[in-house]
Amino acid sequence: MAFADSDPAGRAYDGSAPAAVKILVAGGFGVGKTTLVGAVSEVAPLRTEEYLTVASVGVDDVEGVERKATTTVAMDFGRIMVNPQLVVYLFGTPGQERFWFMWNDLVHGALGAVVIADTRRLESSFASIDFFESRGIPFVIGVNCFHGHQERSEREIREALDLDPEVPLVMGDMRQRAVGRDLLLALAEHLISANSVT
After folding, report:
1. Among 110, 101, 163, 124, which Cα is nearest to 28's?
2. Which of 13, 40, 103, 113 is the most exposed place for a label (fewest CB within 10 A)?
3. What are the pLDDT digits (tens) for 126-137?
4. pTM: predicted TM-score of the whole model, two decimal places
């Protein structure tokens, strides 16, 4: 792949490989992880979606997302080239409990994470929040407001998820690229803030 000779700020590109940043996108089943990765990725995202079958009945909790027909069985993968010196790789985790064992592999090398929450099923985000908190990995919360509906206030969501005050929370429709951009910018600022404290 050929890169530009300079980035948007006008700095010359020295030909070295760009620095890579790995970000995880996590959350419960059907909250919008695949949608977010697809919305912000500059390349066609890699998806490992399979159709839900009768074999998953009684195994996967589809309450609140009964119309969902597919599910991520391994990961989603997307890429954002910030400038010739920096590329961001997005790894979307599978949401069903039977695939959580994969999180332990996907988390290696991750700088931070985005946890997607659905206000209709906030409890589906608990496992992701606990996972990142227990590993000391900074994260932000993205509340997926499906079709622009905001059913709960930020305060209600923070209380329900028992979030620390410094954890950023962004509300919006994850299908919109601008919302994904805002989430990633919030994570970048959160990472900078966390590093300046330590």
Report:
1. 124
2. 13
3. 999 999 999 999
4. 0.75
